[in-house]
Design goal:
The structure is a single chain. The chain is an alpha+beta fold. 28% of the residues lie in helices and 29% in strands. The protein is built from two helices and five strands. Strands 1-2-3-4-5 form a five-stranded antiparallel sheet, with no helix packed on it. The radius of gyration is 30 Å and the shape is elongated. The N and C termini lie far apart (77 Å).
Amino acid sequence: MKNLFLSAAIVLGGLTSFASTSPITNSIVKVVSVADDYVEIKLEELPAPITEALKKAYPDAVITKAYKNEKSEYKLDVTVGDKVGNLFANADGTWIKK
């Protein structure tokens, strides 16, 4: 009989720990996105000096997307093997660090 009461006390004690309320915290997350002024272009619209510079610097690179801004700077989404990255260049094929 003692074991029955002891077991019941343990079970009820365990259930009350789940019934406790946890404090509710509200967190506000602000997302700020900086819109770069690059507009997507077709790969055929890339100047030849850029594609030639890419072939020299990264022979195995594949351009997946290309973008152009109002300063005639180009942003390239490039895949080399299993790595993906971005490159920036001027219209004359000079690489830009950003």
